[in-house]
TrEMBL record, chain A:
This is Ring-1,2-phenylacetyl-CoA epoxidase subunit PaaA. NCBIfam families: PA_CoA_Oxy1. It comes from Enteractinococcus coprophilus. GO terms for cellular component: cytosol. One of its GO terms (molecular function) is phenylacetyl-CoA 1,2-epoxidase activity. GO terms for biological process: phenylacetate catabolic process. Residues 1-20 are annotated as: Disordered. It comes from the Bacteria. InterPro entries: Aromatic_CoA_ox/epox, Ferritin-like, Ferritin-like_SF, PaaA, PaaA_PaaC.
From TrEMBL, chain B:
InterPro entries: Aromatic_CoA_ox/epox, Ferritin-like, Ferritin-like_SF, PaaA_PaaC, PaaC. GO terms for cellular component: cytosol. It comes from the Bacteria. This is Ring-1,2-phenylacetyl-CoA epoxidase subunit PaaC.
């Protein structure tokens, strides 16, 4: 099927094709099968995916920064090694996700431009600073932990390339969460100062990590459609609840507390109850007022701009090489 | 629970034959002179890893964040082996050597201490150092010291990739645009004064080389030149016409950068002496 049929400006003659496409699409969704990039899909589905997948890619790339901030100061060589591997993985995740998004017809350059121009969003958690070494642990444990909770169901997303990217990414995320937990474990079982550092980091990252699942279901109008399309499998609040249920025993094992006086086991529900999150703060970070919004963009833009001459050189060299090969082939033809 | 760096799926390096933990467990105690030699090599690798690690999240393209992170991890891996082995002479750990020696107690060469500069300068440093390391490890695999030979064998596979990476970029930058040519040539110019010291011998090296343990650096110069010259020429660049900087050997003269590098690297570990991480 021609990919032009997915555009709304398709000629009238394509209407039949479009109707057939919609029927086929609905059937795939009803059967909980997978949509491939060459399949017909509604424009809204495509747009939703481009937005969600590129935001996800941007989050991986921007998310490198808080932890990269500690690579040169990691307190042991083993930790330095693990941290470099972890931040490197996030770059890899960004790359998988950009190429998965490209299958929907938007080139990476355009997606990157949207990020650098401030048109596209990324996860607001990365607008908080990694102030101490313990923050590296808290980010691994809570931020990567929340990412896993979000991403495991996405392995079954109806758009096949997204699901496939998620399968690869989830394997690495569990290593990320474990290394974060291990950093905090060492700190909470270390000197009193180390333990205080760990507690302080958890205090600061707990709330923002819970907010990674997005606003409460009542305030999340797009979720319904994403769930109908089998992109999203669980609501924001469901995922948040699962996450809380997972981290409470882990925090106990660490010997650290979670900064929520309302947190307690609810026998009836079979879940932990937890307190209201600060959604005003969440909204203000999304609107650009977070502690590091400007810094993160400045860092990304600087890397992009400082690298422009390198990317131009690589392109110019590739062009020269292609020309040389063409010349050689021509000479060969003339010679023959 | 321990995490081998190979848990990372984006990591592409070959070889996982031995680990620093293996070296500690092996009870192969290094004699003090061999340990000092291991620090010569290990400090180079550690400082280079420190420099390269800074690039992660700042590289000219995202693929390059991954590539430079790979190389940094390889170098850090070499450093961990070598410093673990060196430490065995005095009952010290890799971290005690890395974090609790003072500036004048390091042995790193000035080349790896040089600033990253722009990507051209980093690639120039990589090209020189990878060529040197490739020649060095190709010979060190025959060391009569078993541990050094094993470390060299593992490192050699990785350094082949570093050399290829640096050579590929040297070609692209040298034979890319006018600007990239200029920057790459400048990068070579800034780094070239520190080439000579890579091949400087001293009494320790002569003695260890006589006994078949170390590789005598001066014997690597010819093959270094033969390997690096064609790459530079093919990239339409020139070997810079710049004098080698005198001073600078492993016995105590070092660059101004070293203090800054260690100041940053050691700051946290030294705030909590004796702590575990
Ligand atoms: Fe990730
Ligand atoms: Fe991660």
């Amino acid at each position: 099927m021609s990919t032009t049929s997915i555009h709304s400006d398709a000629p009238v003659a394509d209407l039949d094709e479009q109707r057939a496409g919609q029927e086929r699409f609905d059937q795939i969704i009803a059967e909980d099968s997978r949509i491939e990039p060459s399949d017909w899909m509604p424009e809204g589905y495509r747009k939703t995916l481009v937005r969600q997948m590129s935001q996800h890619a941007h989050s991986e790339i921007i998310g490198m920064q808080p932890e990269a901030n500690w690579i040169t100061r990691a307190p042991s060589l083993k930790r330095k090694m693990i941290l470099m591997a972890k931040v490197q993985d996030e770059a890899g995740h960004g790359l998988y996700l950009y190429s998965a998004t490209e299958t929907l017809g938007v080139p990476r350059e355009e997606l990157v431009r949207q990020l650098l121009d401030g048109e596209a969003k990324y996860s607001s958690i990365f607008n908080y600073p990694a102030m101490t070494w313990a923050d590296v642990g808290a980010i691994g444990w809570l931020v990567d932990g929340a990412a896993i909770q979000n991403q495991v169901p996405l392995c079954r997303a109806s758009f096949a390339p997204y699901g496939r990217a998620m399968v690869r990414i989830c394997k690495e995320e569990s290593f990320h969460q474990r290394q974060g937990w291990e950093i905090l474990y060492e700190l909470s079982h270390g000197t009193p100062e180390q333990k205080a550092m760990a507690q302080d980091a958890v205090n600061r990252f707990y709330g923002p990590a819970l907010q990674m699942f997005g606003p409460p279901d009542d305030d999340s109008p797009n979720s319904q459609q994403s769930m109908a399309w089998n992109i999203k499998r669980f609501s924001n609040d469901e995922l948040r609840q699962r996450f809380v249920d997972m981290i409470v025993p882990q925090a106990e094992a660490l010997g650290l507390t979670l900064p929520d006086p309302d947190l307690k086991w609810n026998e009836e529900r079979g879940h932990y109850d937890f307190g209201e999150l600060d959604w005003d703060e969440f909204m203000s970070v999304i609107k650009g007022k977070g502690p590091c919004n400007v810094q993160r963009m400045q860092h990304r833009r600087a890397a992009h701009e400082n690298g422009a001459w390198v990317r131009e050189a690589a392109a110019a060299y590739a062009e020269k090489q292609a020309r040389r090969q063409q010349d050689a082939a021509d000479t060969h033809l003339i010679g023959a | 629970m321990s995490f081998a760096s190979s848990d990372s799926a984006t990591r592409q390096s070959a070889g996982n034959a031995i680990t620093p933990e293996d070296i500690i467990a092996s009870e192969n105690k290094a004699p003090e002179d061999v340990a000092t030699y291991a620090m010569y090599l290990g400090d180079d690798a550690l400082i280079l890893a420190q420099r390269l690690g800074y690039w992660i999240s700042r590289a000219p393209e995202m693929e390059e964040d991954v590539a430079l992170a790979n190389i940094a991890q390889d170098q850090l891996g070499h450093a961990r082996f070598l410093l673990s082995y060196a430490g065995s002479a005095w009952g010290k750990t890799e971290d005690e050597l890395a974090y609790f020696r003072d500036t004048h107690e390091f042995y790193s060469c000035r080349l790896v201490e040089q600033e990253n500069g722009d990507f051209g300068q980093t690639i120039a440093r990589q090209l020189i150092f990878a060529t040197y390391q490739y020649e060095l490890f190709s010979r060190l695999v025959d060391s009569k010291d078993e541990t050094l030979a094993a470390v060299a064998a593992k490192a050699l596979k990785e350094v082949m990739y570093h050399l290829d990476h640096a050579a590929q970029w040297t070609l692209r930058l040298g034979d890319g645009t006018e600007e990239s040519h200029r920057r790459m040539q400048e990068g070579l110019y800034y780094m070239w004064p520190y080439v000579d010291e890579l091949f400087a011998d001293d009494d320790l090296l002569r003695d260890l080389a006589d006994r078949g343990i170390a590789v005598l650096p001066s014997t690597l110069r010819e093959s270094f030149d033969q390997r690096i010259q064609p790459i530079i020429e093919q990239a339409t660049l020139e070997i810079p016409d710049v004098a080698g900087a005198f001073g600078g050997d492993r016995s105590g003269r070092f660059s101004e950068h070293r203090g800054h590098i260690l100041g940053e690297m050691q700051v946290l570990a030294r705030q909590f002496p004796g702590a575990t991480w």
